[in-house]
Amino acid sequence: MSDDNIVKFERRKPKQEQRTASPLQRKALNWIAVIAALVLVWAYYQFISPPSLP
Predict the structure, then answer these.
(1) The overall pTM is greater than 0.70
(2) Residues 9, 24: Cα–Cα separation, whole Å
(3) What is the C-alpha to C-alpha distance for residues 35 and 20, in angstroms, rounded to an integer?
């Protein structure tokens, strides 16, 4: 006998809550982004940009 047409009542699996970053982590991430941007600007002017005319 096949059980294909039987409705099975099962408990739902609990949804995992999305973790949000704490304010300290968010502030640290912002500072890292600012420092990375400054390093990229410095590297551009140091290595990539054409030399300025005297």
Answers:
(1) no
(2) 44
(3) 23
CA distances from 22 to 1, 15, 29, 32 (A): 55, 21, 11, 15
Q: In whole angstroms, what is the distance from residue 12 CA to residue 37 CA?
A: 45
What pLDDT digit, counting tens, does each position of 14-50 carry? Answer: 888 888 879 999 999 999 999 999 999 999 988 888 8
Q: Which residue, chain included where needed, has tokens 């970053």?
A: 21
Q: What are phi and psi of 47, to 5 degrees?
A: -115, -30
End-to-end C-alpha distance for the chain, whole angstroms? 91
